Description:
This protein has 432 residues and is an alpha+beta fold. 53% of the residues lie in helices and 16% in strands.
Amino acid sequence: MSEADDKPSIQREPSIRGRLMRALAAWSMVCGLAVGLAVWLMVAREVDELFDDGLQSSAELIGALLADLPEDSRGAVSTSALRPAPDRFAWQLARADGSLIARSVRAPALPWHPNANPGLSRRSDWHLFGMELGGEGRMLYVAQTAAERHEALMEVAFGAVLSALAVGLLSLVWMGSRLRAELRPLTTLSDWLSGWNLEPDQVASALGSPERRELRPIHEALQALAERLATRLANERAFSAHAAHSLRTPLAGIDAQLAMALLESPPATRERLQGVRAAATRLQGVVAALLGLFRSGLELKPVQVDVGLMLKRVHTPGVDVHVEPNEPVLADADLLASALVNLLDNARRHGARHVQVEARSGLLRVRDDGPGVSADRCAALNLALEHQAYHGVTGLGLMLADRVARAHGGSLSLTQRAEGFEVELRLSESAG
Length: 432
């Protein structure tokens, strides 16, 4: 199994800001297109009316010019009496029977209408406006290409859509900045919570006043939770102090009495007394570990600890302990002793006979010759220790050792080995 396979897959939670920004971007695009289409439909009609008015005005102007020309000039069929018109504009002057009297260069040689057709009309690629000029049924047709209108409409549509999208984009940027500003109180609240001290005298003023009305129920719920936790913590501390005096002294007296009884008892009963004393020693270790668990949230009392000398004073029946190398470590002596006692007891209960302890500055490695665990089980234990999900996965010993490591700003982890079982107890994250 590769190292990547051992690591749990991490799924990112959906972001409120990201979801809102994506929704706003989609709606801005849809609204921009909808507004652009609506504007285009409205402006398209106005553009058509404007061009139609232009055709009518042009017809009136050209008609006035043609009316002033001599009659013989208007008699030419294939030539124009006026200057050449632009490529997208043309005119024809036709008789009542549809034959042409005159036309512009751009106008076709065939008449647009065989019969008189006043007003607006459309022929092929031309938009026409016809008006009667003088008597005898003569008609003047002024025309504009359909391409000219299409180009104008496309420019209007492009401008409308571009403007709507620009407004939508600016609105999206503005909404993004507003979202960041409005979600900033949540970041402030999380910062407060990360540094929240549950000391009874500091709980009341830790969170401060909510920055938004919607955060007030959250503040009140957190405040009530903190007060309950502070009360429970105070009760546990009181129990820890009481248990330290109520349990340690009797257990120490029992051990001393058993030691005297071993010296004075006949050989036949010494084996039983030795077993009783071993059980009492294990009970002392459990009591010390439980007290250490209660103390893990309190202020540490770090000193330079000689791990080898500490373990010599700890009774570990059935396990041969070697400490090498043995450098002093800076730690709370009581908490470290409770963690090591539980790790050694774990090793003994799982069949180990020899335990190697490596003590370096800020790091302890406890390695035994027991049966060890499989790779899957090792990965599951490390995951539980990382997330402090001890229930149903780790035993009391690993849980207490991990709590001690975390109280020192470090962590506890297991090293996969082909044989035996190895625990690394870091007393600070920079160790090792």
